[in-house]
């Protein structure tokens, strides 16, 4: 029962993070809304990854890639790549906030990739069966 409850809590948080990111993208032209929404989504998602690590020893499980199901390995790869892209987004976003508009198209492209990675992570999370 405890597993189901934690799984449900993780899925609810993940759903809210994806919805928050979607809202942030919709509000991308309004910097006063876009920045805090996206920062909240990114920080919350990183906290979610840490919650999963501390309650499930996710790194230890992920390190057994040969023993894991393919979908779990794909999910872990997507999740880790998403987190790496978050740091690139934060870097390019900070440059934009400092007035470097040359990076805008790069930020937008990386943002689209990051969002697609997060959606793929979200979708695969429903197929991952953890013990």
Mean pLDDT over the full residue set:
90
The SS-based structural class is mainly alpha
- The total domain count is 1
Could you give the distance between the termini?
13 Å
Per DSSP, what share of the residues sits in E-state strands of 2 or more residues?
A: under 5%
**In percent, how helical is the residue content?**
over 70%
Most strands sheet = none
- How many strands appear in the DSSP assignment? 0
Annotation field: number of helices: 5
General shape: elongated
Low-confidence stretches: none
The succession of helices and strands, N to C, reads HHHHH
Radius of gyration over all CA atoms, rounded:
16 Å
Question: What is the secondary structure topology, with strand pairs?
Answer:
Elements (H helix, E strand, L loop, with lengths): L1 H25 L4 H26 L1 H5 L7 H28 L6 H22 L6
Helix pairs in contact: 1-2, 1-5, 2-4, 4-5
Please give a structural write-up:
- The model has no long low-confidence stretch (mean pLDDT 90).
- The chain has one domain (2-125).
- It has five helices and no strands.
- Helix content is 81%, strand content 0%.
- The radius of gyration is 16 Å and the shape is elongated.
- The chain has helices at residues 2-26, 31-56, 58-62, 70-97, 104-125.
- With 131 residues, it is mainly α.
- Helix 1 runs antiparallel to helix 5 (104-125).
């Amino acid at each position: 029962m405890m597993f189901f409850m934690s799984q449900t809590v993780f899925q609810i948080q993940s759903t809210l993070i994806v919805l928050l990111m979607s809202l942030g993208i919709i509000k991308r032209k309004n910097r006063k809304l876009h920045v805090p929404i996206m920062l909240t989504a990114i920080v919350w998602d990183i906290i979610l990854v840490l919650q999963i690590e501390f309650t499930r020893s996710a790194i230890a499980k992920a390190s057994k890639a040969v023993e894991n199901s393919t979908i779990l390995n794909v999910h872990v790869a997507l999740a880790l790549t998403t987190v790496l892209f978050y740091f690139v987004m934060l870097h390019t976003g900070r440059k934009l906030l400092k007035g470097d508009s040359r990076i805008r198209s790069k930020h937008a492209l990386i943002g689209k990739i990051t969002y697609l990675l997060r959606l793929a992570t979200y979708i695969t999370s429903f197929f991952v069966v953890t013990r």
